[in-house]
Amino acid sequence: MFRCGQLCSRVFAVEFDLRTEPLYFTLNSTPQVLHKAYQELFGDDGKLFSLHVHCDNRIEKAQTHAEIKHQLSIALSRDCDVFEASSFIPDVKNSLVKGFFIRDKSTTDLSEDVLKTLQQSKSVCVFSYKREGQYCWQEMLSPVNQVEESVRQYITPAAAAEHHPSTLNIRNSDVFYNMDEAYKVLKECTDIIPESKEVLKLVDEQLETSRGDGFPVIVIEGLDATGKTTLTEALRESLNATLLKSPPQCLAPFRQRFDSEPPLIRRAFYALGNYITAAHIGKESLRAPVIVDRFWHSTAAYAIATAVGGRVENLPEPGSELYKWPEDLLKPNLVLLLTVSPEERLRRLRDRGQDKTIEEAELEVNQLFRLKVEEAYKRIQNPACIIVDASPSPQEVLQQVQHLIRNKYHL
Ligand SMILES: Nc1ncnc2c1ncn2[C@@H]1O[C@H](COP(=O)(O)OP(=O)(O)O)[C@@H](O)[C@H]1O
Ligand SMILES: Nc1ccn([C@H]2C[C@H](O)[C@@H](COP(=O)(O)OP(=O)(O)O)O2)c(=O)n1
């Protein structure tokens, strides 16, 4: 487990510019000459700090990280740059510790005061960086006690990681590959989020359902405003099908609450939603074809795209086990991914004129995130999704999809 005094085996990554590779470095007791990119980051024009959250309790850790992110964005928004940073052991799963780099451009000691306050929490560790000529070193920001004495550690450039560090902790923190793992997260939250108990109760009430050779199950996926609601309603009519969605209606009262939680908790909630919907699918597909509006592809694609910082290239590579369908989740017969151009999607969002979730609002400004969600959708395997161009008229999109379904099922 990461401790303030045990940094030497770790590599640090700073997302200095989201469009490029992070800057990687390690720490060493002997001085190292630094090249330009590092000198720029550690430049002596401002004050530089890093902050990491280390805590054995994963719920507490996730919440502390989210709280600090929020506090930094409020307290330091004007005169400081706040970069996502991480510390990890290369290729070691679950070794990632998330944090921030803060570059203070103010003429006052704005960030130092804020950081000293944050450091009073026992799970927060703050370091400051100093530069002398071509050397930079790190030391603890005013060590709070003699045990954690401040040791000068020199910055040493490190090779780029083969796998982007943010991919190291995805399994069971952002994406869950069986129900038990997601269930455990909500169980650990019951004291601080009472609604977790109600959600778990709803999960428990779903009887085990195994699906025999029932009617086909067709999932419609895509970013918000790509036309899922329009198409799923039309398919329901034309196929005489049952229409379901994930998260299911019974979780609607809890969705806003879990949407405000950090990824660990939020993604566990959506994962469990898929299992409840799967139970409904199991029952309904005995009677009629079932159309599902969003399912596991959405859960995994949004979770991976949120967890992975920066560029599309940082996503887990195609074929990675992180794109594997959960072993215990009902598999649909057909998954269709609706795609439209970013411009058309924006036009539809504006025409609809309704409130967007914060995440969707971010999608608009965050082209990188949208690209990662779409790419992650396409990399999920077994079942993989079939891409449908959803830019023609609703009638034409329906015909296209009916054609695909007819070819497969003669419905
Ligand atoms: N094929 C289409 N062509 C033009 N506009 C469409 C089409 N399909 C849906 N829309 C419109 O785009 C908006 C978003 O569609 P909707 O079905 O609600 O998307 P989603 O469920 O994926 O968020 C709605 O205003 C809808 O009327
Ligand atoms: N099956 C699902 C459905 C949605 N999600 C998550 C993924 C995103 O964070 C949001 C997207 O939901 P959003 O409210 O934008 O979607 P709709 O408007 O309902 O199409 O929900 C999920 O994880 N799993």
UniProtKB/TrEMBL annotation:
Transmembrane segments: none annotated. Keywords: ATP-binding, Kinase, Nucleotide biosynthesis, Nucleotide-binding, Transferase. It is an enzyme of class 2 (transferase). Gene3D superfamilies: P-loop containing nucleotide triphosphate hydrolases. Its EC number is 2.7.4.9. Residues 220-400 form the Thymidylate kinase-like domain. It catalyses: dTMP + ATP = dTDP + ADP. InterPro entries: P-loop_NTPase (IPR027417), Thymidylate_kin-like_dom (IPR039430), Thymidylate_kinase (IPR018094), UMP-CMP_kinase_2 (IPR014505). Belongs to the thymidylate kinase family. This is dTMP kinase. It comes from Cirrhinus molitorella. The lineage of its organism: Eukaryota, Metazoa, Chordata, Craniata, Vertebrata.
